[in-house]
Amino acid sequence: MKKNLLSILLVLVLAVGLLSGCSGSAGSTQGPSENTEQTDTQEEGAQTETPAEGGKTIVMGAQSDLVTLDPGNMYEPYANMISYAAYDMLYRVQSGTMGTPVPSVATGYTLDETNTVYTFTLRDDVVFASGNKLTSKDVAWSFNRVLNMKESNAYANMKIVDHVDTPDDYTVVVTLTEPDASFLVKLTSNAYCILDSEVVKEHGGSDTGGDTAKSWLDTTSAGSGPYIIESWTPKEQLVLKKNPNYWGEQKNIDTIILREMTSVDAQITALQNGEIDIALGLNSETAKQLEGVENVQIEKGVTAMLTFLVMSRDESLSPEMSNPLVQQAVRYALDYEGILTLGGEGCTIPLNFVQDGFAGAQMRDASYRDLDKAKELMKEAGYENGFTVTLTCANNNSEGTEWTVLAQKIQQDLAEINIDVQIETLETTLVYEKMRDASMPFYIMFWTPDYYDINNQFAFMPGMGDDGTAYGNRAKWDVSSENQAMWDLADKIFVEPDEDKRAEYSKELQELFDADNPFAFLLQHPKTYAYRTDTLESAPYNDLCKIQLCDLKAK
Amino acid sequence: MQVIKDIWKQKNFMFKLGVVMCLAWVFIAVFASVLAPFDPVKDQDMLIRFQPPGGEHFFGTDSLGRDVFSRVLYGSRVSLSAGVVTVLVSFGVGILFGGIAGYTGGLVDDVMMRISEMIQSFPPLILAMVIAAALGPNISNSILAMAIIWWPNYARLTRSIVISVKENDYITASRLMGASHLRILFKEILPNSLGSMIVMATLDLGNAILMFSGLSFLGLGVQPPLAEWGAMVSDGVLNFNYWWIATFPGLAIFTVAIGANFVGDGLRDFLDPRMRRRA
Known about the structure:
The complex is a heterodimer of chains A (555) and B (279). Chain A has 555 residues and is an alpha+beta fold.
């Protein structure tokens, strides 16, 4: 019997070991961490290097995926965090807004009657970190440099520019190929960073093609922002130093270090220990581990990330689901209050394709659910007894809201109107492939715009993206005489320079859109991050430049 | 009946514990609908998400406000049947394959055994993942994937037993009496090698359930919202602050796997003549 007792004990010990083993491996499944151990040792090494010259140092932990620091080539999600710290643009995003441009190096602009010629007047007190004065020739040179780098990812935002003229040192005239009301918004992105043309030319820069300055710009910066890029080791860390020649108000931080930390758990632990001051890799679920931790503030930043359902209009995929009446019934049947709970604090529900923060954005009332109306629509469509449809759901999440959880909620909601939803979970890459082929009748997707203007949202308009690049086409929603009115409004919004008028048109468009579209917009998500309150006064967030390093205040 | 009595009479506490654990799970699987207080799929409630264990929900609630206790009970149906089916299929295929290889011998044996070794040379979980992912994730595909990687074990064991049994005098005798090869293989040899096969199958049952849970954990087993232990543990990992979501299905996997192993161990002891004498 003793032996038996011993073996029971052994079993128990094993069980405990098993459980703790589980928790260990759980962390590593959180992100695409390649070699956590290796980065850990690197992180330790980096820490001893941390300069202690008396000045304040702020360390951020993130998985940035930066591949270059050349503003003319950057495209990655964290690109503008760095370009905003080291460079200036004619216009910047206003702090606390989604994408509203405010003058920076420019003091203002005038627009001619063709809506294509922008004349900017520049400040005359801006100097580069090198001490050179920033003049119109630097602006023209920087724009032309990107215009002649057609293979660069940043070129997409620049290609609307036809040519740049400089009548005098402090005037820049930009002529567009066609009217574009989102030009000022595009102007706030890294493609339009103003480089110190004298310095960059010395290192291979060229505004007529054949530019070779990228490798040099990967190691340092040549801008007029409040910080200078001191060093960068890809996938390890990036060091920003205060720019002593900064033309604006000096910041109270000397050094900002962006440390690459692939594992979210590593970021959480490091923030708790005070090793890092800001943890950027969190989401609504993982942040819960930091709730109630002393000196740690969890923040929610507004983003333009949307999660939505696509219901294809392709009858061959599902004759029932492609019916516009059924699609309308689905929108009525969803329990938005419950979905809002699943999304977590800070989530909102946009009426449809225009996110909160963009011109004329309309919100969906959380109590929109109307099962009677939904059933009526189902009856009208001839499917009051219901049907079966497959909901494809990638193994993915939107800022921590798991799609499989959402799918199960939707399944339950739609069961109320007799739609039998079969969930099919697939690898994310496989779902993307099927999405481009437009071969799924019903699926969950998310969306983040390339630039922060309503014009970018027209990807959801009927007929958009005839090569499967936009959701109008992916949902097989074609332009017709019924939805022509939507396009009339969209065309106006696209070019209208007056923001108030755009908002009016946008509201009207969203109402038309709400009556007939192949989508159901579920959530607009916040970005969750956390910072230490004992070292930082504030750490404001903007979706374009993530943490606004220029507005970072140390204690 | 006498055999069962003999087995039970062994002085083996772990074996009896194992039998009780397995029978309990079978009972739960059969009567899940009676025992579970809630529906495992339909009883979603956004207002009671992430409730800790206690009160109405013995094991707490999950991210959709579903009762974890009911889901663990219902999950036994999927896990147990997946484990049993996998073992039965591999058992059947393996015994046939190994029997033919061992009995025929020569070149046929060589070729057949190299084929089975080819499959065994892959890391089992990885191969199962590849097969399940290629076929598309659902229960029958992951059972098929597991059976594909599992049968060579039985084939090898059967072959080695068949080779040793076929040299016995009674086989020669039956051959002299003019029995066909098929008759010798199926009526004489295989029934005499079944004992150790059954032991292996029992021992494997736990492993099969474990591996099926592993596949589900990786998103290759059942499709949501079906309750399955591995998938539930995976849910729990995503909601790390709420320990009960992963712990209880984890314990369920653990008890079934260890129960099956105890039973297998006990059976082996019983069938091993040397061990039996000692007992």
